[in-house]
Amino acid sequence: MAKVKYTEEHEWISVDNGVGTVGITDYAQEQLGDVVFVEVPEVGRTIARGEAVAVVESVKAASDIYAPVSGEVVEANGTLADAPGNVNLEPMGNGWFFKVRLSNPGELDGLMDEARYEAFVKSLG
Amino acid sequence: MRYLPLTESDRRAMLATIGVRSIDELFRDVPQAARLAGPIEGLSAHMGELEVERLLGRMAAKNVPAADVPFFVGAGAYKHHVPASVDHLIQRGEFLTSYTPYQPEITQGTLQYLFEFQTQITMLTGMEVANASMYDGSTGASEAVLMANRVTRRSKAILSGGLHPHYRGVIETTARWQGFRTVGAPADASGTEDLAGLVDKETSCVVVQNPSVFGHVRDLAPLASACQAAGALLVVVVTEVVSLGLLTPPGDMGADIVVCEGQSLGVGLNFGGPYVGLFATRDKLMRQMPGRLVGETVDADGKRGFVLTLSTREQHIRREKATSNICTNSGLCALAFTIHLTLLGEAGFTRLAELNHAVAVRTAERLAGVPGVKVLNDTFFNEFTVKLPRPAAPVVEALAAKRILAGVPVSRLLPDDPSVADLLLVAATETVTDGDIDALAAGLKEVL
Amino acid sequence: MVQSIDRSQGRHGGVVPSPAVSETSTGNRGLQLEERLIFEYAHADRSGVDLPPPPRVKDRLGGLRRRGAIGLPGLAEPQVVQHYTRLSQKNYAIDSGLYPLGSCTMKHNPRLNERMARLPGFADVHPLQPQSTVQGAIELIATLADWLTTLTGMPAVAMSPAAGAHGEMCGMMAIAAALAAAGEGHRKIVLVPESAHGTNPATAAALGFTVKPIPATTDGHVDVAAFKAALGPDVAAIMLTNPNTCGLFERDIREVADAVRAAGAYFYCDGANYNAIVGRVRPGDLGVDCMHINLHKTFSTPHGGGGPGSGPVVLSERLAPFAPRPWVVRDGDAWRLAEEDGAVADTSLGRLKAFHGQMGMFVRALAYMLSHGADGLRQVAEDAVLNANYVMARLKAELTPAFEGPCMHECLFDDGFLKDTGVTTLDFAKAMIDEGYHPMTMYFPLVVHGAMLIEPTETQGKHALDEFCDAMLHLARKAKSGATADEFRAAPRFAPRRRLDETQAARKPVLRWRPTNRGPGDDGPLRQAAE
Predict the structure, then answer these.
(1) Which one of 3.90.226.10, 3.40.50.2000, 3.90.1150.10, 2.40.160.50 gives the CATH number of domain B69-81+345-447?
(2) pTM score > 0.90 for this model?
(3) In chain B, fewer beta carbons within 10 Å around the N or the C end?
(4) Contact, C286 vs B34, CB < 8 A?
(5) What confidence tens digit (pLDDT) does each residue in B250-290 have?
(6) Which other chains touch chain A, taking contact as 3+ CB pairs less than 8 Å apart?
(7) Do C6 and B316 touch (CB under 8 A)?
(8) ipTM of the complex model
(9) Which of C12, C511, C517, C527 to mutate to test the interface with B (most CBs of B within 10 A)?
(10) What's the pLDDT tens digit per position in B70-85?
(11) Are strands A71-76 and A98-102 parallel, antiparallel or unpaired?
């Protein structure tokens, strides 16, 4: 079972064999409301930690998604083009955004685990 | 004061309800030194309608309206006949005095006509999607370049020598302050420039005008192919939208973005504004478009209705990440445009275009017979360039003194380019009569 | 993930089905008439315009004649008039009643202005006619410019910007140009209060500036201490709206202006709310460097369903040399437009628009100014402020004002009074529609929770304000009485449409009619349902 890590910007990343799957958390999708559009990065793009790499739009908000880690994009979730609602329905499942091959796995250490993220969300009120 | 309903006794009662003694107390946050004790000096006091009409009427009377004289002035704004019902309908208070349709339940009127307008624009341009209008053609062209820069992630725009110099000026101003490059081709009075060789891997877009500011009609398909091969976008500008009734639309020639000045339909000359910019593109670029968009949906009872949509691209949500800082469109001018086009319909619009072309051809043929005058164009729609035996600006002035408005001397648009000093742009629309053409030909013969 | 939140007029939200309503066979409900799209009248060969047959000529189109039909529908004039009349009746408008949309200044649009703008000497002249034939038109621009500079106490004005946001772009370009000319191009930071209109940060960012937000104090003003702390050698300008978007006058504005100037930066004042002080306070006396003026707000040119606007920008002495082309100059007895002919200073920031500005709006605005005069404009500001304070005073019995003390031309409430009622600001606004009012501005400014920003304007009488306040108080009491949340959520019930599904519109955008969308025959029954 891959380990899931979280950012303060409400992205999650689940790493398996050096490849991380990235999406937004349940808390994030609830804040956004109905997601209507997702722009994912193109495959092959090299991304740096903290770089704005994707966009998610709801009816009332537009948000940038920042890369939780550095690496190369190896897959993007093409199904979101036709079914952006999956981000609302299964944010941690079919609503994933892209997969990245980590160039610096050490960066994961700077992210939160589930317990800490839950505490973080609670602190937001 | 006829526009202010409050009476003195109202004001006293209201102050009492608020719990203050004077209006001044309500302005107490204004620094004392900046509070003026009385009306600002140097300005007149209030006037009745009659006095305002007299004063402004005197100013208006000093001008020569297009309808009063033989009129051949074009170069980005065209004299056309606007049906009476257009002006009647746009003055309905429910259109005139309504705001941006933020509350769709009570602004379906505005939203539906904008949806119809968007559809008409896609049909005219041969494109897939259009927005709910821009300020005018020139600012629309500038927004098109910014959009091309976003889409291609490049920052060099190539500007045709057939592009209206004022449009070029607006794009260059944007480039200078928003930080991208422009490469301007030399003025193309002959209509023969070939830009394909200039397009490279750094080019975000090529901006061409069709018909060009000199009137030439070109097949843009080869340029579109060159752009596509280099990963650049082709932006086509149309300043005379009536031409689309007769010419192959830019979309059919491979344009990626089409920007038109819509002034010709419904709007009138207005000494330069307000006008209405039309903006259309391909479906795949929809989310990079600037400006407002209206979309179809359903209400809680399942009835068809319309809403502003994809607004997360806009400044009021995205703030510093918006696609553009624009918040208004040109709603009322878009309404005038769409009503005029609805009145014309397919048959009327294509006939209007035929009529414009035929009148212009007759004008060109006639002027070609004036000694010393040479028509430069093989192709044109309703405007063409003539070369005179001497500088065009004083010739135009001399004809104006005879109450003939002969056209636009190119030197007015390009004062620093001596090669165009003898050139005159002549536009002829459906409003030009045989008598007007006779007057222009005879006048030219006299003053040359 | 960092969010940018919609501060719009609440165009989204829950959709609740109505209780069973008995439908008519036509879909019409009395005077509420359904209307199909023009494309659903498909008859290509009909036209509402009679044109003569074109003379026969040999065409000069170079083989580029259009192939295939455009697809436009054909309607006769009566059908066109009926179509647009029916559409118009689905709109709320200032002409219908009080339109308290805060920050938008929905004041009466005098019809004299429309008549003046249509004088052939203004409406039927071409921007590139010989200038000798448009002397009166140039004189009109110069006269309006004189009124604007005199009213604001500023030395110069740029007339060509097409709207407020365009004016902002012009003003910030002028600042960038002035900084570049002074070798100060390294100043890249623009300070913008959090309560600012979205256009301010959008404009600054578009010009390559970095936006630094300045917080507001708890009483709704800009935090002067935080602002001063942010000033430095890398700051280009501050963009400040005054009166601000909370409807309050920034009482420390002089202090802000002096600090900006001392720091070598420029003061951009967003003039969107100038109507609150017109004729009574001159922005030039407050130390601003430039300010755009929305002619469609302060000077009553029609909003027209979202434009056209007009946004002249008044400029201080130190920014005037950088104004955009063209420019009006006086040559002896004649007026002249200085275009690209060397008569305009080389320092000009460039051209912003194809021609000289929104002439049609200039005529309307000048007609408005002449009608009011200096005395009437002063009264405009006073009545606008009086009306807003009156509404505040009456509503505070049931609603919760966001800030203490007098407001300027608009009053701001938060959603505190709706706490635990299950009714949101959006629901409250939609219920106002059923009561016959256009809602106020909602959820803006962002610094106030569930904001409701009410701007009555000076063109409403006391009776109209009282009726409005009665309706608002009734709704507030009803919401607080409990057990009515469902009713609020179902609102509006009596408008031409009920709440619209914005999620569907954005997920599967349908931005144009297509022949396959649906197809009632030319004169067949109209079905509105879009299955």
Answers:
(1) 3.90.1150.10
(2) yes
(3) C
(4) yes
(5) 999 999 999 999 999 999 999 999 999 999 999 999 988 99
(6) B, C
(7) yes
(8) 0.97
(9) C511
(10) 999 999 999 999 999 9
(11) antiparallel
